[in-house]
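Regression test case RT-17, inverse folding.

Input:
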């Protein structure tokens, strides 16, 4: 927790037990039953922290399936007399529901039920919290040194880029501060809306959130240099790069390695080139692509946010990376079309052993996913593209891939050198990967074009439309 000048704050680090309860995966409930992260028999190592101040305490979590949050739970010490209120928040701090606890017992687990269950979306993060006016909360340092999972519920480990074990002193509000990966024993009651078991978002062997991004053990520090990258061969290693106006690269061979990048990244000059390796790009709410330009290399990285994950003009290599969770603004004046990887015309592109997943659903203004991988001859011809050994996740879009043959576009009538081989297509809810089919716009007669060895995730060949 945050440090104040009083001795009472120093007590926390010295007194709070290193999480006495360390198990990170519990026995799941049946799929349609209410479920929480902890059971009523789970108890904190430190039940009463000697801190009398009012504070909001929370847990960041996601559910692996759609469902409803019905209430809030927390573990209470006898001295934590309250009153208490519970809240559910979006990850950005918008309160979705609030309830006052009534009929509490003297100590132990307490539960309050929202007047109306709150629908939540699978694999989006939320925060559940409670406020106490009297302090004396339960807490264990390092309780979120590891993730906590129970059935469809997942609370991530505390990291600089994805904090967990949250607090905010005062009269209440969205908690965002952390201290020592502390678990404050705040829980959620969740009911899945389906009896379909949760499926792993990505099968083993392909890139996912666990095997891409910043490697475990890397210590990240803030990047404090200028945000215009104008020095050739510059290396940014082990940094949290936060440039509010975006990241423009004007020089050749600029490398971001083992880093968290909080805005979209773009090459913006002739001769500029970037490599993003073992990093996470979190472009957030922007109509720009998360990574874009010419001479772009992305290796073993997780790319989220932005209208598209990667947009390539020419000469791009994307390998061993996880592209997902693009941004779509439902309040824009027109419908955004999202893509995992996009080229509007270019040459020299290689996509090898990635997980490609366009995730935004269709909205009322015509926005949503086009495909996981889109090659469109809008501003130039599509030439010399290799797409091999990737996992095409099922998408809300029409197709999982579009491969360059679009006669209605200015340069879409003759894509050449397009090689698509040994990729795996997930069937998903539609049974077709996309709403219409797995692949479209592949010109079998184009010079150097090859479609070979592409299969469904459950077996059998995938043929181009």
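Golden output:
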């Amino acid at each position: 927790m945050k440090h104040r000048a009083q001795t009472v704050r120093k007590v926390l680090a010295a007194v709070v037990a290193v999480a006495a309860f360390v198990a990170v995966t519990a026995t799941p409930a049946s799929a349609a039953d209410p479920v929480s992260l902890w059971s009523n028999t789970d108890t904190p190592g430190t039940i009463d922290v000697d801190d009398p101040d009012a504070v909001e305490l929370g847990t960041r979590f996601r559910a692996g399936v759609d469902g409803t949050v019905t209430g809030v739970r927390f573990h209470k010490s006898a001295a934590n007399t309250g009153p208490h209120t519970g809240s559910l928040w979006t990850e950005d701090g918008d309160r979705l529901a609030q309830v006052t606890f009534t009929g509490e017992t003297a100590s132990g687990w307490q539960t309050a039920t929202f007047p109306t269950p709150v629908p939540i979306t699978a694999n989006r993060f939320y925060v559940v919290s409670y406020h106490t006016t009297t302090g004396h909360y339960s807490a264990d340092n390092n309780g979120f040194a590891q993730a906590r999972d129970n059935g469809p519920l997942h609370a991530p480990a505390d990291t600089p880029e994805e904090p967990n074990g949250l607090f905010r002193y005062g009269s209440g509000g969205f908690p965002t501060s952390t201290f020592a990966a502390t678990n404050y024993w705040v829980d959620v009651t969740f009911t899945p809306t389906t009896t379909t078991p949760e499926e792993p978002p990505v099968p083993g062997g392909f890139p996912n959130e666990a095997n891409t991004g910043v490697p475990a053990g890397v210590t990240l520090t803030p990047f404090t240099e200028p945000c215009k990258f104008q020095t050739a061969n510059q290396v940014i290693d082990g940094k949290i790069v936060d440039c509010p106006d975006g990241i423009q690269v004007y020089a050749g061979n600029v490398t971001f390695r083992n880093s968290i990048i909080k805005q979209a990244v773009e090459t913006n000059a002739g001769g500029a080139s970037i490599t993003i390796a073992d990093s996470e790009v979190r472009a957030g709410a922007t109509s720009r692509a998360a990574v874009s330009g010419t001479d772009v290399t992305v290796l073993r990285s997780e790319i989220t946010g932005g209208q598209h994950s990667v947009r390539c003009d020419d000469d791009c290599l994307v390998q061993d990376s996880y592209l997902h969770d693009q941004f779509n603004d439902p309040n824009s004046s027109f419908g955004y079309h999202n893509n995992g990887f996009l080229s509007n015309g270019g040459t020299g592109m290689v996509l090898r052993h990635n997980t490609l997943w366009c995730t935004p659903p269709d909205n009322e203004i015509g926005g949503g996913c086009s495909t996981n991988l889109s090659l469109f001859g809008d501003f130039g011809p599509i030439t010399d593209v290799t797409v091999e050994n990737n996992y095409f996740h099922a998408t809300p879009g029409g197709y999982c891939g579009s491969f360059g043959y679009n006669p209605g576009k200015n340069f879409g009538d003759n894509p050449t050198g397009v090689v698509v081989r040994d990729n795996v297509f997930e069937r998903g809810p539609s049974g077709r990967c996309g709403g219409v089919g797995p692949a479209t716009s592949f010109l079998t007669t184009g010079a150097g074009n090859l479609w070979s060895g592409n299969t469904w995730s459950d077996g059998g060949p995938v043929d181009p439309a």
